[in-house]
Records
---
Amino acid sequence: MYNIAVASSDGINVDLKFGEAQKFLIYGIDENIVLIEERSADTQKNEDTCPSKCSEKKDGCSGSGGGCGGDEGISQRLDVISDCRCLLCKKAGFKVQKELEKRAITLFDIECPIDEALKKIANYYRLLDNNQKFSRI
Amino acid sequence: MAKLLDKQRYKCALGAMQTVQAIERALPVLHSGPGCAQKLSESTGSSGYFSPNIFPCTSINEKDVVFGGVKKLNSTIENALKVIDADLYVVLTGCIPEIVGDDTQEVVSRFKDSEKPVIYAPTAGFKGNNYIGHEQVVDAIIDQYLEKTDEKEKGLVNIWADVPYQDLFWLGNIRELEKLVAELGLTPNTIFGYKRGIENINKIPKAEYNLLISPWVGLKNVKKLERKFGTPYLHYKTLPIGATETSKFLRAVAEFTGVSKEKTEEVIKKHEDYYFYLIERYADLFLENRVINKQFSVVSDAHYALGITKFLANDLGLVPAKQFITDDTPQSYREDIKKEFKELNFGIEAEAVFETDGYKIHSQIKEHDYHGYPLILGGYYEKELTEDLKGNFLNISWPVQNKVVFDSYYAGYSGGIRLIEDIYTIAVQRFN
């Protein structure tokens, strides 16, 4: 049993960037794939915690890391999904990628329906965990 | 059960990007994980217009394993065509995309109509080493790039020999072989190195003959060329080093291509005269028998093991101990190659051992009685061993650490002289 975090605006497609997500959908995988909960990713994004001092609050990554609240914001948002094996989102910046690596959370930066992605990933991990050969063909 | 290979002497099949690099203005495009070109960073002489550090690479990761990497491959090829000015783009696959099932061939076929040719060679590491990879690249050129033609150019001979970069003398050797073949009145055509490139590749189908100088690498290719273009091939197994083998080689080529005996003997005489003039001058050194070792072993791929063994036995009169062939020669060729080692002058026979494991090779060298200090010609791994045995060591095969070779060579008459120089330079140091 492990969890997967998904950044989605509609609960159907993986369609948000890491910094855009207000919440993460957490799916639990064992025999079945079940939506366990929604976790708020809205960490206190204000000027005090934002090192880049971005005055206007905006969603998405502005290139300066401002969208996701800077270094601290990244860290706080990742704490929300720290128990997950992987993260599905449309895109993630370089800093986020590095932080994910540190926390041993795999990033799948894709755009596709959630259930399709989860099925593929669950199948991949199942084979991997059982030392079986993985092939898409 | 998984095994460890001690002292590896080749790279995985993807190492064939060196074969591509050796073709001027040809660019490898890698569909592999990041760092797969890193394996080439140890070798010197691989910088230039394109170098391994800038080969375009899809750098696939776990996401591409699960969701497929073809999109990335498509964009990598597309952008390589836009920003890198090359004559030929060769897509090479690493292990991961082939295991998980990316259809590389399909993606490459989308570029069929692009301005510059894009071809594809499957070079996953589990398929074999870079000797096999080299064959795959040449096969890809034959299958996907070359077109049939009825036009034949009289006297044009394609020469195929060493695996570029894997063999540190590749450039010098192939140039020397070209020169020898040209002296017979033929027109040599090779595709590797300076000012050869795509134009020479285009000439391949027009050749009257293919000449393969190698115990086994490339045999598949010349057979394919024969099937596709009807070009007959001569498979000459021994790299000719020194007078005995080079004269034999020239006679064999002349007979195969119909060059007259008079012409051939004239060329041979000219070279032999000079060769033996040099040998005579240094006869005092050769006859001083405490200088040189009594027995020798070569540790290298079949190409050099065979060429050097024949040279040292036939021309220098040294006695071969065990010879170690480290290129993981496919089983089907082994018997034939072993036989070649039995056909030395003076009724001498050498024992060839196919062994890729460095530990086992070193154990066998240590066990053997060389009747004095040994002469070992091998990879850098043999340096320390030879020092322990108080022998003489010459680095002739990969890996190479204590030698810099630009365009030097051991092939041909003068190549033999170069090899004698190298060996005796080391041998005389013992006494001086």
Note: Chain B has a mean pLDDT of 94.
---
Amino acid sequence: MTRVLATTLPLAGADSIGIAGERAICDRRGVLYFPELRLLTVSDLHLEKGSSLARRGTLIPPYDTGATLLRLQAVIADYQPAIVISLGDSFHDGGGAARMHSSFRERLEALMAGRDWFWVAGNHDPDAPADLPGETVRELAIGALVFRHEPSAVRVEGEISGHLHPCARIVQQGRSVRRRCFAGDGGRMIMPAFGAYTGSLNVLDRAYAGLFRRETLMAYMLGAERIFAISRSMLRPG
Amino acid sequence: MTEQPRLAEQNAAVHLPEPFLKWFAEKGWSPRAHQIELLAIAQAGQSVLLIAPTGAGKTLAGFLPSLTELAGPPRRRPGQAHRGIHTLYISPLKALAVDIERNLGKPVEEIGLPVTIETRTGDTPAHKRQRQKLVPPDILLTTPEQLALLIAAPDARRFFEDLHYVVLDELHSLVTSKRGHLLSLGLARLRSFVPGLQTIGLSATVAEPDELRRWLVSQNPPGGMAELIVVTGGAKPDISILDSEERVPWAGHSARYATPEIYSEIKRHKTTLLFVNTRSQAELLFQELWRVNEDTLPIALHHGSLDVAQRRRVEKAMGENTLRAIVATSTLDLGIDWGDVDLVVHVGAPKGASRLAQRIGRANHRMDEPSKAILIPANRFEVLECRAALDANYLGAQDTPPLVDGGLDVLAQHVLGCACGAPFLADTLFEEVRTAAPYASLDRPTFDRVIDFVATGGYALKNYERYARIRLNKDGLWRVSNPRIAQQYRLNVGTIIEVPALNVRYIKAGSKGSASRGGRVLGKIEEAFLETLTHGDTFMFAGKVLRFEGIRENECFVSNAPGNDAKVPYYGGGKFPLSTYLAEQVRIMLDDPQRWKKLPEQVADWLRFQADKSVLPKRDDLLIETFPRGNRHYLVAYPFEGRLAHQTLGMLLTRRLDRAGARPLGFVATDYALAIWSLADMGRMFRAKKPSLAALFDQDMLGDDLEAWLAGSWLLKRTFRNCALISGLIEKRHPGQEKSGRQVTVSTDLIYDVLRSHEPDHILLQATRADAATGLLDVSRLAEMLSRIQGRIVHKHLEQISPLAVPIMLEIGKMPVHGEADDTLLMDAATLVEEAMGTK
């Protein structure tokens, strides 16, 4: 995959970065797009999390799947990717796809139509989603890039993963700002969680220990209108 | 007062049984008139409200009906194993219940009554609670949350079948909160168990006694009221405002200037109680006092964030009269006996006349001796406020907040609790709920929506039928669908939402924590404050200057800081906004130069200077000043409506000014004034009537602008979180695990966003908006103000800052600037990075 297309400019509010030599666009809505590959990747959709919790008596609003699909629809409309990779935990649990309301299922299928769609297996959804098209894979290698749900313990150049739901926090003028973020060191990238009800874990937490090169770690924090690239020295735990 | 005792003695003989008369005689006391009057009313089968000042023997009065009845022949019927609870006593504080157990035990023992008294609080061990269920005491002393738990138990009806009286202490402080709503529903339930149930309310003086009288009895038929006994009198307190030799500062809340003068008052008195409004003020004052404490007098600190063991030690020392002074926040406000306090010092303005009266009541806990108090204003506006409060106290003015309708989130919790106790019919429960005064005007469709919410979440998208928590059975009864639901309910009962807080633990300076985990816990501090600290920052807590070492899981590690100065100030803000009544008094005082004579000379001078340079607002006017300063233009308004209402006004005005092209940059709000700064010259814009001030302050800002601003506001998110927790949408606690504050916060914010965009009319959003209007936003007060000032706006376009504007201008930079500019902060951080990396 060394073929270089005419450079696509990032959309307003997105930042262009390099991962293991591939150029990618970090979108403030939490998706990563590789223009040369016409590939869009999104992680941790956690569809049907609401109904998953409802089963245990916590009756939070059943609109999360709808909200997540709506946002996904918007980015797909903007980038028109040929390939979509959902990086695991696409559903909050193994029964999620089966529980999904028929109207949501139809919307999801419409999004999938006409593109190559990969479901990477996650810890929440190790098996293929029931009755949905697309191909379910453990991991996927495209050119210099490897797509998998959980970041591997040994450093892998060009690895794109999710699972940890990274966020970052800074303090400016006595005020604290916490946002979801992409976390990357130029070699590997961990994606923010995309789902409407997904929480997040600070990129300085012990769970990330050893995953990044400290010197080059950057948090690409999601702003209302653009991405903010913040270096490790500015970041705060908690 | 001379005639009354004799009359009371005659009456006492009629109503009091022999052993009681003997006991009073042995003590050399005679029953007070109101005690006998209350007894007579109770004996006639009526409920009653007793309003009396501190030290009037309220507690004994409240229990006399129970004690005299229990002194009679045993209630146990032949063959009956145990008698149930006779009297339920409910107080807002655990400590109060414990205190009453002690105080009541004494007369019971001395009279030789066969009466058992026990407490039941969150601290009561499980085996004792179990035993209480089997062998209930005659008198059970408890809290509103424990009552909610008791009525949600399957045997509740049987447990309460012998109940005669419910005694409600400190009723004035209970009724204004959601705890009061939950308690009113609990009372309604008890009345349905025991139709003849009598209530006895004990209260400090309130503005509208009739509201409390209705609260105490069933509102079916509507408007029913308990009998009323008011004890007036008590000696007038001797209150003064500190006439300082020092210069009273323009702004700030520390009253540091007065420390030497406060210290000499402490030396002159036996025991001094020092009240402040916030925890940070308490820390600061304590620190300052010790700095000048040459005689090393025993001066202690007491506030709600300190470790419990520490607080108990201070309370004990206080009871034993071994302390000379104690610096306290509101934790000590309520009626606990605190030994021989002979002076109350109030640092900072009291914010409400009623609160002042109550705090001062702490000195000399005997009704017939005057209490002595000194007010210490922390800044010049507070001098005005203290003066107004002082005049109000002599007038006996009262400004307790009006009661509001019961919260729907609280009702949802209660409905689930009822179902946990026993299956219910919707019709019956609806009628029962409406007997509680806060829910008297609840309509049936709303009630049905609450039931629907409890059952399946009440969403338009009917997705959760199969996960229902309660289900309607064929017999028309609603039942809990699963025993696990009841277990979860019991863990999450109550309406007190704690602010996420972390333990503060001592470690050795510089160590990373793991090696020295064993350090002492000093107390708890809000996560929101800790988040703004960096490693090495110093701050004040638990009477010490501490160095922030870091956060690990649920703990904040600190070490002793070298030196005495804390780097990071913590402005907790006034907890209580200025009361409407007091605000009006301040406006009246400003308008009347005659009254300035009572003010300290330097403050009167300040006002005269203002009259000279600008103008003083008339009592019903709103003064607006505009002036340039540096490269900014300022607008300062003086509504005197309290910080919350000003904050809301500030948000709305900046939106409008932005639309008008004034390019506003930020604003700050205090209890007295509001300052907005902008790039464009607002003064000139107002003069050109583009826009006019009348249009800018038009009441229509409470319509669309409010809605639009509210939608994304963190204020509403915080309110929503409380409603979500109270209503049981989200659990505070789950069996076997405690969710951390952060997890709860994150998820309720996300839920709020999703719910607002998909079902904006959901009942929980409705409850949230209702709460915000009276709570954090104080919209109701803002609305009153906007209608009052129509056609009465006075605009002064000045060359430079006016004397009256100095205090709020000094707040700029000290207080967080309001606005939703988080992205700007991110931008700053990102720019710094770009500069450092040379990428741009």
Note: Chain A has one domain: 15-148+155-234.
---
Amino acid sequence: MIPILKLPERSLRAVAVATACILGAAGAALADDEIMAAPEFDAGDRRGGLLDEIVFATEPDVGKVAGLIEDGSYQLFAQGITNQTIFQRIRESERIEHDLSYGSSVELTFNPSGPEFESGELNPFNIPEIREAMNWLVDRRHIAEEIYGGLARPRYMVVGTATPDYAALAGEAREIELRYQPDRRRAEEVIGREMEALGAEKRGGRWHYEGAPVTLRVLIRNDDIRRQVGDYVANRLEDIGFAVERMYRDAEESSRIWIGGDPEAGQWHVYTGSWVSTVVSRDTATNFDFYYTPRGRAEPLWQAYDPAPEFDEISERLSRGDYGDLEERAEMMARALDLSMRDSTRVWLVDQIQVGPRSADLGVSVDLAGGVRGSQLWPLTVHRGDAPGGEARFAMPSVLTEPWNPVAGTNWLFDRMVVRAIEDSAFMPDPFTGLYRPQRIAEAELTVETGAPVSRTLDWLTLEQEDEIAVPDDAWIAWDESAGRFLSVEEAGEDGLTARTRSRIVFEDDYFDRRWHDGTTVSPADMLISYALTFSRADPDSPIFDPGHVPAFESFERHFRGLRILSTDPLTVEVYSDQITPDAETIVARRAPGTLPWHVMALAIKAEEDGELAFSSDQADRLGAEWLSLVSGPSMSVLDRMRERAVEQEHLPFPELLGEHVDAEEIAARYDAIAQWRSERGHYQIGDGPYYLHSVYPVQGALVLRHFADFPDRADKWLDFTQPPIPALELDGPMMVAEGEDARFDIAVTSGGAPYPAEDIEAAEFLLFDGDGALMERGTAESRGDGHWEVVLSAEDVAALGRGANSLEVVVTSRHVAMPVFASFAFSTVPEGTQKLQ
Amino acid sequence: MAEMTGQDRAGERAPAPRGWLRDAQLVGAFVLRRVFALMVTVLIGVYLTIVVANMGGQVDELREIQIRSDVSEAVRADPEIPAEERGEMVERRVQMERERLNLDQPFILRSVDYLRRAMLLDLGRAEQMHSDLGSRQVYAIITERLPATILLFGTANMLVFFASIFAALGLSRRYGSLTDRTVIGLAPSSAAPGWFYGIFLILVFAFIVPILPAGGMVAVPPPESPWAYALSVMRHMVLPVAAMFISSIFISIYSWRTFFLIHSSEDYVEMARAKGLPSGMIERRYILRPTLPPIITSFLLMLIGLWSGAIILEQVFNWPGLGTLLFQAIGHRDTPVIIGGVVIFAYLLALTVFLLDFLYAILDPRVRVGFEGGER
């Protein structure tokens, strides 16, 4: 039986957030004035984007950010800021607001080889217990508050603190976090014991091995704040008797040592590592396999990993999705978390917080992990003031970094950010949970094979199970390049084919009434050409065969089990696949077809056939041609020539496939429209998104987007996602509890000062610790109405604590934000009859 | 100059033909030798650049690591690729990238190929970078940034050059005056580079008294009318030009003034003064004319010096110039772009040196090729 969670839809509007609360202890540096209020906004009957014009310009100097926003030169900086001085300046300004994102993390990578290197030197970090003890030696709160100045929050585990998995495992996570609180004495004790077992001895307070001092080489990145982190760790190691050699290196120099070098050579012991994520990661189950086992990467360091057999097995199973249901997955995750802490080839230190500055009158949806640059919804939510219209200027470190084309064009973060405003999408990832929500979908039905560990959270789709999912004979499965069409399962001789999932997706009624920016109407041909390109570019017989596309295609082909178009009015497709992810929403969203303007693609295909342009960078190098850019540069004149030829020949690409949906009249109309567009706008970049590319200034590093009036949706459709409704907690109760009495603790859960609706709380758990830090009780808080929860400890629970100081930890997880919040309360248990403090 | 005088000895070894034929032979031989010497110099310079830019081939190792890291992260970030297939996918992509960058060939072979193409001015394709317009041709990448560089640095350097020449000439006549002492006193201000003054100028004129833009080449979005565009560019040039001007002008005046002072005390200048010739004529004919070769040399070297731009100043003012481009190329270890920038500079320098040899002969009647008796 698959556990299916249903989440009621509700408005998130007007929910505010006290950021300080979500940061817990690490966030103490962020004051209570960090409250971000969602706008009261009247979009009227406006469609599409809320702004009339958005200008992007290059401004790589973050040092100017405050001044440029204050003087009105820019309204938003897309680059995340981690500099404390700049952040302070931003906070002091009344004209500047900011958003926070949590996509990057810092950890200590240990060299696990040994216990002796090839040189005969001792490597204490070969011993898991010593690595584990490092968790007690470092004070993550100190790192977050003092070194990062509050722009970081402590992180203990491989699962990031802003992920759904962390939220789901909040109770277990908190337990681990409390278990690994800084404790130098314990660290010294464990390390001392293990060092002696290795044959080392401590003389004069310094560790010696075979007569020589034990010297640890700490490889410290010197090109960012990790320099201070490395120094801090080095100091801590010196404090407990190690000699430390600090090796300050930049990214390149250090990579030759820690990732390129042989760990057995003993060039380093500890490295200050960092990892970046630009989207909320929905599934972190693969992290264990990646970070702790030789399967993670082929480099020598990974090959030196030797996880405990149980950890190795559980990591691999999690990576393969080898679990019966989500309950089992959660159990495995909890166990893996525990084992990863015992392994500790990496000791995670902090999740770094990036600040996204913007002018106070500008509102925008910001991704919890990727900031505004990673947000899919930014174009549909960005607005100024309290009415639609107006202009905004965005500063970015680079504009048009690489050529734009929708097939294999730029993948740069900031290029993609702009492109998201130009292109529409069938689904939008929730910026606070990463869960997909429908944008062009009327309904969807996912069928998975019985026992597949998949769950549904939102109610825009249904989830069913079948013992066997047969792929129909008429579903397309392969590509016939010579015929220029797909082969059905029957034609390909794959009768009896089955799949693990079937996604039946029904698009909105007016899906094919929408317009491209050049005024032409979106048609089924635009959808089909997308599939055709995927297959044709991987076919060696194709004139646009691209060997660089083959590996990705083969991976797709391995799980692709067929496609069936059931109807084009409304567009209804069935996609069969063997790929499974835990979220039903993700499976359906990844299977949904996209659209490409076939008339623009036709020109690009002709250009690649002629060897003048290429969709991908690899292919361009192979052909000695230019990488296709629909925006500017040498591609323009080539596309012009291709367009003239296409008009003459009434060219339709893949006529066997597209001919059914395109007549001669439409061919002419499409080429006329794109010619007109090119003469007016100077480029070929068209899309179906809420903004169109009005003008491009590549050398000057600027481009201008303007409002696309024909976009079908109301402009305020996604406005509720402007601010993350992160709960704020207040925990209160008696400071003294007498033995033999029960105790009640109140939890106030609010957002922007308003009570947090009870049905929007996924979980409210408590953990009870005695004076020795031992976990005595774990349970669930009880709801007492919106914004009010209660923890009740029975007289037996209280008695079990014994006399002395105790601690109650509360973990609350919202359904709308993949980030749990914590609160703690200290109280004492006293003998009966003691006069109590109030 | 020294090379030219060396040619004289050639005439001593064999009786030289007479008249124009003899002159043509001498000049031809000189040109050939000079061109050969310069080409060898360029060749050595460019090859050294290739070797240094690749750290004698050690960059290959860094690239391999970088490629593997980039590919691994890209594959891991792709949710469509199952975990169990990632290893194989990474290996295939790494291999393709190695082949694309010819990393499967020994560095020595690649270096010779780089050199051959560079000497033929076949700048080829960049390995990582693109022009702003999206081209991978090194020629396009470099020439795209050239106008902005010439405009900014040409304007600033021309201003500094001519202003300092004329100010220096004037000061050389007023040696020891208050103005002269003031300029000498301000000369150390040039110890600070242009970008240093730029930061202050931005602070004052873009933020405290916001009358000029803090950076960029043109307003955002750029004006559509050509006049408004030109005006906007000029407005954006004010601060960087001022920064460069302030940082260079005093040391430049001081330098030229000292130079002119030395020449002002030559016997023939004193004689001219004693004859009572007007000071303007003395400046033009007796000081400026004989000092023209070094002035022209300085001017031409200043012009080709524009090629390298100014990395930090461009960064401070967010100016899309060649300095930033070459800096990025070094950061990307994009050897073709680095070589492209260097080889063009090397050819320009060689051409300038070559032209100067002839200009010296035109400007200074004492300079001649291969006359018997060793007259120069």
Note: Confidence is low (pLDDT under 50) at residues 1-38 of chain A.
